[in-house]
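Per reviewer request, we include the raw input and output of the structure prediction for the construct analysed in the revised manuscript.
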Amino acid sequence: MSKKRNRRKQHSAIARDQRLFANSRVWTWEGLTSPVDGQQYTTAERWSPFGWITMGEDLAHHLVNHPRNWFVGVRALCRAPDGKSWMESRLFDLPSYNIQQVENLYHELRADALNAQRTDQVYDLGWICQTWHGKKPEDPLELWHYQYAPEEIIRQVTDNEKIINRMAGPGFSQERYDRWQQVNREYLEDRKRVLEQENAA
C-alpha cells in the first residue's frame, strides 16, 4: 500500500520574514537626541497583536537590510514667527527594495522638502519609512507619516483623539530649533565635502 504524499506547502523562510515585518516602521528626527547619551537616535517598531512594539537592534537591522515594500517620507517641521506650525513632506513608494541601497533618495527628498521652506522657520527635519506586504493599503490622509509628529500638526488632518494620543511626539522648543539648525549646518558642510570628493574622483 503506497503512502499518501504530503501536499502541504513547504515552510518558506522568506514568506515568514515578509509576514513578520509586514507592518513595521522606522524613523528619526535630526533635532531630537537620546536623554541617555545625547546622540541622535532611531526608533524601529513592528505591529503585533498587542499593538506597536519596539524592535531590538538586531531585528531593526534585519528590517532594513532585506528587500521590502516601503513607504518613504521626509518631513520638515516648520513654525512661523506668529506661532503657526505645519509639516512639509515629501513621500515616495518604494516596492521590493532594500532601503539601505537608496541613501541618495533621502538626500534628494530632504533637499526638496527644505527648498519649499524658509530654513529659519524649520525647527526639525526627519525621515520615516513604513512597510507593507501584499496589496498596498489605502490611506487617503497618509496618516502613517505623521507618526511622532507634534500634536498640533496631527490635529490638522484628524480629530480622532485616540489616533492623536497614540501618534503624537514632542513639539516646538527653542532647544530643538537651535539643535536642528546646527545639525543642518553640519549636514550641508558634510554633503558639500562628499560631492566635491565625488566630482574630483
